[in-house]
Amino acid sequence: MTIAPDLLRGKKIALGVSGSISAYKSAEIVRLFIKAGAEVRVVMSDAAQKFITPLTLETLSRRTVLVEGGESWASDHNHIGLAHWADLLLIAPASAHTINKLANGLADNLLTQSALAFAGPKLLAPAANTQMLHNPITQGSLKMLNLSGFELIATQSKELACQSVGDGALAEPIQIFFAAARALLKEPFWEDRRVIVTGGGTVEKIDDVRYLSNFSSGKMASALATALYLRGADVNLIATRKEEVLPPIHTIDVTGTQEMFEYLEESVRIAKKGKLSKPSLMHQEQISLIQKRPFLFMAAAVSDYVPRYPQHGKLKKSDLGASWSLELEQNIDILSDLGKEGITTVAFKAEMDAANAHQNATALLDAKRVDAVCLNLLEGTKSFGTEIHQIDFITRSQTQILPKADKLTLALHLLDAAKRLEA
After folding, report:
1. DSSP secondary-structure letter at 164?
2. Mean pLDDT, consecutive 10-residue segments, the chain of 423 residues?
3. How far apart are CA 11 and CA 183, in angstroms?
4. Is residue 48 domain-shared with residue 178, that is, in the same domain?
5. Taking the mean position of all CA atoms in its chain, how far away is CA 40?
6. How far apart (Å, rounded) are the C-alpha atoms in residues 334 and 304?
7. What angle do CA 236, 242, 246 make, to 5 degrees?
């Protein structure tokens, strides 16, 4: 997944680094933020400096690192100034020692002082030995921090620095980046809204080693699912192909059209279900059903035809002869057959006929009973799998030409356009 260079432009992130062997990964975290256009300032505990030098993080962030003995009260290079400056506080890695101090409100170093002074969104990425992390005291501290406004980024289970295998490894830097970006970019419209995205070209079996498919890479669907995650949505990606690195969204891997249709039907049914709101602590009102209208983005390239007689095993060339006529039949039409009542649906249409592309795409609004169509004008096979993309967003009332951009940026523009479907 290509990170858009302006994704976090204008955002200010304070990164706290505590004493953990995984502190070396903080350099990659800073690099990802800077690459996305954010400003980053780092505060380090004394213990963190045993694992990575302030100079490394200063070089990457282009900002002086806040360390003990380095505060200045003639500028904002101090824990209060940092807390006022930042839009987001991220502590990664957060050692068991730091976690337990934070939970008890202790502020005996610049990192914990900065955290105590910060009033905005706070993220915590723990990293510790399995027994230290799962010690009831640490677990109690994590629960207290979660109740106190810290969002926790889940650890990994893998071989740790102590050479034991278990839970406690720091989340991958890209996943920490995604969590921080979501905290900064989420919007009330998309937050907690259930959204389904389909992607990739369907694979239709000829025999057990051959198939019919198309060149669709699934990259646009992956970018769209990522953009929805960043905006705060509850995302389900159903795809035949997708990006290897995605944020922590629900994904369903499928192959053929029939399998995609079955999972899609079930996903739509679940998306339409309401969810329970929490009762007020002040007034124990009756729990009510609250549900934002779900969305479906049908970005998959579904085969128009499938083999009439798919075979088991491998068809041998010697049996087929010098020529082979493969009999095809028309495939099911997922968008036409799917029950779309109660779900806002956006279809995708790929065209090569520039003269008639808009007319063909507009016809889908009624033919498929959808709310909008994303028109993608292709220039042959070279258009597939590219990083730069362009879409016309077509509704019954207007056509909006979205700016040509990398797919993640384009997906964010697409979500802005899609919000108006509920206006």
Report:
1. -
2. 85 97 97 97 97 97 96 95 98 97 96 97 96 95 96 86 80 97 97 96 89 89 97 97 95 96 96 60 42 94 90 84 87 93 94 86 93 86 69 94 93 96 83
3. 11
4. yes
5. 21
6. 10
7. 65
Point out the residues that are catalytic.
162
Residues 204 and 161 in one domain: no
CA atoms of 161 and 419, how far apart (whole Å): 46
Q: Which of 148, 163, 184 is the last residue in one of the domains?
A: 184
Q: Give CA–CA dist 40/34, Å, rounded.
A: 7
DSSP string, 326-357: --EEEPP-HHHHS--TTSEEEEEEEES-TTTH
Q: Are 392 and 401 in contact (CB under 8 A)?
A: yes
- Could you tell me which residues are beta bridge partners of residue 165? 159
Identify the H or E element spanning 236: strand 234-239
Beta bridge partners of 344: 295
Q: Does 266 lie in the same domain as 403?
A: yes
CA 36 to chain centre: 15
Q: What's the domain count of the chain?
A: 2
Q: Which domain holds residue 101?
A: 12-184
- Answer left, alpha or beta for residue 238, where phi above 0 means left and psi between -120 and 50 means alpha: beta
- CA–CA separation, 276 and 287 (whole Å): 7
Regarding whether 248 and 208 lie in a shared domain, the answer is yes
CATH number at 131 reads 3.40.50.1950
In this structure, are 195 and 331 located in the same domain?
yes
Q: How many other C-beta atoms are found inside a 10 Å radius of the C-beta of residue 132? A: 18
pTM of the entire predicted model: 0.92
Q: What interhelical angle do 219-230 and 173-185 show, nearest 10?
A: 60
Residue 402 belongs to a domain with what CATH number? 3.40.50.10300
